[in-house]
Amino acid sequence: MNQPKNSRVRWLLIFWMFVVSAVAYLDRVNISIAGPEIANEFHLDDPHLGWVFSAFVLGYALFQTPGGSLADRVGPRKILGLGVVWWAVFTVLITLVSPAIGAALTILIAIRFALGIGEAVVYPASNCIVASWIPGRERGIANGIIFAGVGFGSGMTPPLIAFLKVHYGWRSCFWVSAVLGLVIGAVWYLIARDKPQQHPWVSPRELALIEEGLPGTTEKATVVKLSWPAILSNGNIWAMSFSYFTYGYVAWIFFTWFFKYLGTVRKLDLSHSTFYTMIPLLAMAFASPLGGWISDRLTKQHGKRVGRCYLAAAAIGLCAVLLAMGTLIDNAQIASIILASGAGALYISQSSFWSVSADIGKGSAGSVSGFMNMGGQFGGALTASLTPWIAKNYGWTASFLVAAALSVAGAVAWLAVKPDEETAAV
Q1: Rounded to an integer, what distance in angstroms lies between the CA atom of residue 421 and that of residue 47?
Q2: Is this structure's pTM higher than 0.90?
Q3: What is the pLDDT of residue 67?
């Protein structure tokens, strides 16, 4: 079979990672829409439902680093294929639990924790693909496209899950999510390869473009493996991980509690709550590739310090301002739009996290990004349980103001990151 003169296989893989990302978030956010029905059937109040939400994020967080190490060792193609099968199984298992079982809450928590373990490989594996396939000058937009799947998948979840649960019951939501996951996982395994040199569709011209554009002046520099002492002693990685902790805290408010907030606090009915829940998630989908494009342009003109770090700091800082403003406005529609804008501002910074972690990690991009993402998911696990507790004791405005304060801290942390600083491999 003749090779094309200039193939674009790297962008096919990035597009399919966008699809994987979208379905992965469908699998994790579906429970926030089905949550009221699950809570009624299993007699759960908001704090106990929050435990179920947090269980997923905790499992997801704890296995980010092992997932990243596996992606580095086994390869992103195999580990992501196995991960998709795992999360399909545990997505379905929740539908088999009966409220008559005495330990039903414990079983729900265990299933969601196990689902988090399976999904933990997704983004470390995607960062391995970025590190091996994407030239440095294209990494902002590549990561922006991948993480647009987060907003797209989450944004499509409310109307799809609302339709399924109204017409077929809440259990159908999880069966549909599982089947979609298996389909996209099978396609991934067919079209993906760990390295561009292994892919039969890659033309010599594309291979040369990739190899010339990888960070580092030699091929050896791009495949360096970092030891865990080197990773854990790197101040840049710790600063990004802390900032990603604050990022995850804010993002997961929209993934887990925003639908509930609109219904109980803003007094919107099901259809309006569903519609306004979509807005911040679609803002994320739009802002993620936009932020990646801006980041690449600024990096090309002014270097990584401006294009990655200062952009991320400004975007997360703007998110803090919009979160504080949105909660203080009485009109539900205007408040929802301002809060959605805060979610969009947050996601402008997304590509910076993953581009810099790929640059620092090189041959250990999965391990570095997995460690960083663990911080983000600990933030998500905390907000899933802490947000309703703060709301119950101090009001929902306080919940969002805490998120805004953490955003300020996350923005400041980016000012300490030096993306061009080399990490010793010892």
Answers
A1: 44
A2: no
A3: 87
